[in-house]
Write a structure and sequence with these properties.
Blueprint lengths: L1 E6 L5 H11 L3 E6 L7 H10 L2 E4 L1
Parallel strand pairs: 1-2, 1-3
């Protein structure tokens, strides 16, 4: 399964733990909006190209 995590305010202890567990059996991508200005286009592409989207 392909999962994208969108971190609005950066990583937290809980988000790091969940991402770590999910990374063992899934393809996981993390978009940290607190560190870089991601383009709207790339975020929309990620949302539609992954099976599951989790926003923190």
């Amino acid at each position: 399964m392909k999962i994208v995590h969108i971190l609005n305010d950066g990583p937290t202890k809980l988000s790091d733990q969940v991402i770590s567990v999910q990374s063992k059996d899934n393809q996981v991508k993390v978009v940290d909006l607190s560190k870089k200005a991601a383009s709207y286009e790339s975020i929309v592409d990620d949302i539609f190209s992954h099976d599951r989207v989790i926003s923190w």
